[in-house]
Design a protein that fits this description.
CATH class: Alpha Beta
Strand content: 25-35%
Oligomer: single chain
Distance between the termini: 32 Å
Shape: globular
CATH architecture: Alpha-Beta Complex
Low-confidence stretches: 127-134, 148-154, 156-162
CATH topology: Peptide Deformylase
Order of helices and strands: HEEEEEEEEHE
């Protein structure tokens, strides 16, 4: 495993159109391990491939930040298929170091995604436990949206960490 450099806001690769994952072989497994290792080192709950300069539609999420192997999730070619509720929580993003903002997110999500072997799954993320609303943000990163934008296309105002 390798810790990869995380791109920061302003790098055009963060907002590029990302390619779907088609090859679920050893190269992808290596990238997945690198994404987990990089996210744990940062530390963060999740990291998407575009954040390390790989324009593929894949993200890793680990709410335990490396403490519980069973908590690891891989989201390849993710699609939000349903959502409900709304809550606003303060969020950060590894590609916006030291910056945080409060953004409304769904309180429950159901997604269609492939795992590290290419098997389709439809996991649900009910409730707010473990900051599950961040999954909505992480889901958007592989799709070319690094943080949040207004309908006019401006990045949502952020503030420096205290």
């Amino acid at each position: 495993m390798a810790v990869l450099p995380i791109l920061v806001y302003g790098d055009p690769r963060l907002e590029a159109v990302n390619q779907p994952v088609e090859d679920f072989g050893e190269k992808l497994r290596s990238l997945i391990e690198d994404l987990f290792e990089t996210g744990w080192k940062a530390p963060g709950l999740g990291l998407a491939a575009p954040q390390v300069g790989v324009n593929l539609r894949i993200a890793t999420i680990d709410p335990s930040v490396g403490k519980d192997p069973a908590a690891r999730m891989v989201l390849a070619n993710p699609e939000i298929i349903s959502h409900r509720g709304e809550a606003s929580l303060e969020e950060g993003c590894l590609s916006f170091p030291g910056l945080f903002t409060t953004i409304p997110r769904p309180t429950a999500l159901r997604v269609r995604t492939q795992d590290e072997s290419g098997r389709w799954r439809c996991p649900g993320f009910p409730g707010l436990s473990g900051r599950r609303t961040e999954i909505g943000r992480i889901m958007r990163t592989p799709n070319g949206q690094a943080f949040a934008r207004t309908p006019a296309g401006a990045v949502v105002p952020v503030r420096r960490a205290r």
